[in-house]
Amino acid sequence: MAKAIHQPDNRHLYPVLFALLLLAGSLSIGHAMADSPRERALTWQALQQAPYTPEQALIDTLHAYPGLITEYEVEDENGHLVYELTQVSADFQQARELSIDALTGKIVENKPDDLDNWLRQRDNRITALLAKSTPLVDILRRFQENTNGHVVEAELKLEKGILFFELEVNHEGKITKHLVDAGSGKPIPVYGNF
User: Fold this and answer.
1) C-alpha of 6 from chain center
2) Domain that holds residue 91
């Protein structure tokens, strides 16, 4: 005679699983909304009206904290446009993450970063950047002048021995990506999508 297999009654877990599926779906939708055409258009409009420009934020940051800006991004913090920067001091003694209000130019967050961890992850990038580099503020200025677009994100990268900034540029709500050589400041042609 075959023995019956007893399976536990897991029906009490269904509400938990359903809640987890809803949460996962809402997180996916939230991420997609952040990159929606609506959000890009609103970011474009906000940058057009911002009295404190990204360029000025970079210049003022480097005056207050001499060093290198390795990352930059335009964000919405509680309904306010902010510029988020990652900066390393010129003496490589401190790294910091800054959030700057686009309306007032005031620093709303100044958070020291773990320098040892930061340098371990970015050691090659920093060494190459020190050897030769075009400041990010100059790259932003050129893109603003030549493309009538706003750089909304920039990240310093080192791949295949080439140090470059990967940029996302908002042109009236349309996002395009660009590569710019960190040494010369010249665009790196990209054929196709990336």
Assistant:
1) 53
2) 39-187
Classify residue 152: in a domain, yes or no: yes
Of 139, 87, 90, the C-alpha closest to 109 is 87
Taken as a whole, the chain contains a residue count of: 194
Report which of residues 86 and 28 the model is more confident about.
Answer: 86
Look up tokens 């290198």; give the residue: 68
Give the C-alpha distances (Å, rounded to integers) separating 8 from 12, 14, 120, 123.
11, 13, 49, 53
Neighbouring CB atoms inside 10 A of 96's CB total 20
* 179-182 LR contacts (CB < 8 Å, sep 24+): 180/134, 180/139, 181/134, 182/128, 182/129, 182/132, 182/133, 182/134, 182/156
Judge whether 9 lies within some domain.
no
What strands lie across the sheet with 150-159, from one edge to the other?
A: 107-113, 95-101, 80-89, 67-77, 150-159, 162-171, 174-181, 187-188
Q: Is the pLDDT of residue 134 over 80?
A: no
The 3-state DSSP composition of the chain as helix, strand, coil percent (nearest 5) reads: 40, 35, 25
24 domain-assigned: no
For residue range 167-192, list pLDDT tens digits in order: 999 988 899 899 998 888 889 988 76
Question: With contact defined as beta carbons under 8 Å apart, do 99 and 108 qualify?
Answer: yes
CATH number at residue 59: 3.10.450.40
